[in-house]
Every structure is written in C-alpha cells, then in structure tokens.
Amino acid sequence: MGFIEANLGDAPEEKLPPEGNYDLTIRSHETGTNKDGTRQMVTVYMTIEGDEDYMGVMHWLVFPSKEDWEEDKEKATRMLRSVNRFLALFNVPSGPNGFDDNDLDGSTARALVRPEKGDDGEERPRLIVPRMAAAA
Fold first, then answer.
1. CA-derived radius of gyration, the chain
2. Which residue has the higher pLDDT, 51 or 106?
3. CB burial readout 75-98, b (16+ within 10 A) else e
4. What is the pTM of this model?
5. Separation between Cα atoms, residue 57 and residue 48, nearest integer Å
6. Distance between CA atoms of residues 56 and 71, nearest Å
7. 110 contacts: CB under 8 Å, gap ≥ 6
8. Measuring CA to CA, which residue among 48, 78, 53 is closest to residue 64?
9. Are 61 and 41 in contact (CB under 8 A)?
10. Which backbone phi and psi does 84 adopt, to 5 degrees?
11. Which of 31, 46, 53, 95 is deepest in the core (most CB within 10 A)?
C-alpha cells in the first residue's frame, strides 16, 4: 500500500474532563437492545459545550423487559425512574406512555460529570443524573 497521507496531527487525543458541572448538548442517539438482547435501550451521545478537547459523554437509557416486571418490580421501577430523571434533566417531553426519541437530539442541560473507570479499566466521563423534585 505504501505511504498514506493523512493529517494525523489534526486528531489529538481527547481530554478527560475533571469533575464539575458542564453545559451538555445531546448530539445524537441510537436505539437498540442491551448486550444480551433482553431490554430495549437508547444510547445517548453528548458533547460538553465550550471545550471541544473534552471527551464526549455517553449515557444509556435502559427500559425494563416484561421479565423484569414479573421477576423484580422494584428493579423495573428503578429503571424507569432513571429514564424519567434523564428526560426531566434535558427537558425532553414525555408522558405516562413514553416519549419520542426524536426529541432527544439538540436537547441541553447543565449537569454534573465525573470521571469513572469502566469495566475495561479506562476512565470516561459519567453523567450524574439528579433526582427529580418531589411532586407537590
């Protein structure tokens, strides 16, 4: 093949952002299933505004399966609560029957991000989704 000309210097390694509150924008998302194919999920890709040298942030919205509801209703409820918190944080319209995933892209929020070591030993930025205010 020989020499391949490419501007490799234009692709520096991204920086891990230090723990802090950042302005985030959802740049894209993918729908699919979890690794073992038992649950629906949405993978959300976010950018940290104001510093394009920082790594992007990924977050997963995982939905309980029929089996989750049958085997552990509390766990299934926690999964939906996590989705609700994320949607509220990013002001994504939702209702008792769900939400339109097309409303995710472009949504913004200010939220806590902290470095966290993954199962593979690599550190990545993790979104910390706050609890929602209690209903009055």
1. 18
2. 106
3. ebeebeebbeebbbbbebeeeeee
4. 0.88
5. 8
6. 35
7. 21, 22, 23, 24
8. 78
9. yes
10. -55, -45
11. 46
Query: Which among 121, 106, 115, 90 is positioned nearest to 14, based on CA atoms?
Result: 115
What six digits make up the tokens of 40? 């629906």
What is the spatial distance between Cα 61 and Cα 30, in angstroms, rounded to a whole number? 10
Identify how many contiguous H helices and E strands the chain contains and give both numbers: 2, 7
Instruction: Kindly provide the residue ranges of all beta strands, DSSP E only, lying in 3-88, ordered along the sequence.
Output: 20-33, 40-48, 57-62
Kindly state the tokens that stand for 10.
């234009």
Burial class (CB in 10 A: 0-12, 13-18, 19+), 17: middle
Using alpha carbons, list the distances in angstroms from residue 48 to 8, 18, 101, 131.
23, 12, 21, 21
Helix-, strand-, coil-residue percentages of the chain, each rounded to 5? 20, 40, 40
Residue 128 identity: I
| Residue entry with tokens 């950018």 | 47
